[in-house]
Here is the input.
Amino acid sequence: MEIESKVFSASIASVAVQSLIEELELTPKPGLVDQNNTGSHSDLTCSLMRASAESLKDTFKKIAYTSYGRLPSQSLREEIAEIGRAGEKQMFEVTNGINTHKGAIWAIGLLTSAVSMGKGTFSIEKCLSTAGKLASYPDRYCPKMVTNGRHAMVKYGVNGAKGEAQEGFPHIRKFSLPMLYQSRKNGLTDEQAKLNSLLSLIATVEDTCILHRGGIQGLEFAKKQACSFLKSGNFDSLNKMDQEFIKRNISPGGSADLLAATLFLDKTEQMNKGRKLKEYHCIR
Here is the structure.
């Protein structure tokens, strides 16, 4: 049991980091750091983002190990929150104080915990609902801090990353995952499918990163641009959209975090199917 949980936790942590790196390297992403440019972020680089993602492997491994085979509870919520805060500290040490993946630690951390609670057997729907249950427990030891995201939540009356998680990640369930699967079914490349998935999020999420930088006008502009792209399916237009986002200082960071979480769930589902296939052949 001990060896099994350690091996599983290491495997899931690798998937989590891989998902962050795949989101980073997806190009072109409007307003976001990718292999073409740094988007609306003058303080970030692709290499810094990659180093940040890689620094979080131990964090996700600890979250998975701590959650293995357990049920959502107040104590588990606070245990993984402590691990997450330690992970944030490690991230900031690597990035010299720049916030690169705080939102991703929250989203993928919860989903990592949910996947590990089910020992890799939960369906995506079950993982999302389990993560939502866990997120709904209060973290009594959370430092009282006014973040950019929290400020935008209060100012504009939106749920933000916390509400998204507590509701079981509805934008992943209703938009990004279905878009990813449908795009693949329609014969698009994997990169195009991921871009469609990202744009489906930008078109629907009340992204606090956009609200913080561009207010309601910035959010409405981003949503309109994303909807226009999804209707046209013209991938050549993404470079122009990128320049428009940069010009307006728009960065859909919340949508990027949800895309990474989407890729994580997709990968863990594929692992689960692979495991079941092996079991089937062993039984036969």
About this structure: The chain has one domain: 2-143+153-268. The chain has a mean pLDDT of 92. Residues 6 and 65 are 6 Å apart (CA to CA). The chain is about 75% helix and 0% strand.
